[in-house]
Specification:
Layout lengths: L2 H22 L4 H4 L10 H24 L4 E2 L4 H7 L7 H18 L4 H4 L2 E4 L3 E4 H24 L6
Parallel strand pairs: 1-2
Antiparallel strand pairs: 2-3
Helix pairs in contact: 1-5, 1-7, 3-5, 3-7
């Protein structure tokens, strides 16, 4: 990955929290629990997923950088949503998303070329690099912000 592309992805990663906040701007309690489809998560559930995913991803990156050929273990997002009380208020999860992204972006800004090419193995997808991590998580919050907007805009939101 060339340095320009890498920096664009870091900037997008850093912007993820703001994008989610924008998607939630002036959301009503009903919209927070709305679903555009019964099989989709509500905006509230998306926020909790983002916090859990972000905290998990922050450790994944740190392991890729600090350990030799780490085994990166996947997790069951559905089980998290079912068992971690995704019906709770979202403020703490938004704080976790912000803090994790901020701390991790500081690390990304300081990586050497040697650190950028470090790798491990993901239990679900195989070879997994720092650059692969960045490509995934630079887009993650933005994709879910779009999901929040979609749920809010559904003409007949399902609750």
């Amino acid at each position: 990955m060339d340095p320009t592309t890498r920096q664009e992805l870091i900037d997008r990663y850093r912007d993820g929290h703001r994008e989610v906040l924008d998607a939630l701007h002036e959301i009503t309690p009903d919209q927070l629990d709305a679903r555009s489809d019964p099989n989709e998560w509500s905006p509230r559930q998306v926020v909790h997923h983002l916090a859990d995913s972000e905290m998990t991803s922050a450790i994944r990156l740190r392991r890729l950088i600090a350990e030799e050929d780490p085994q990166i273990v996947g997790y069951d997002e559905g089980a998290f949503a079912e068992r971690l009380h995704y019906d709770r208020p979202v403020d703490a999860s938004l704080d976790a998303l912000r803090a994790s992204r901020s701390s991790t972006a500081e690390i990304l800004d300081r990586l050497s070329e040697t650190e950028w090419v470090r790798t491990g193995t993901h239990s679900e997808s195989g070879p997994y690099s720092v650059e692969t991590w960045l490509e995934t998580y630079a887009a993650h919050a933005h994709e879910h912000a779009a999901q929040i907007r979609h749920a809010r805009a559904a003409p007949t939101s399902l609750t």
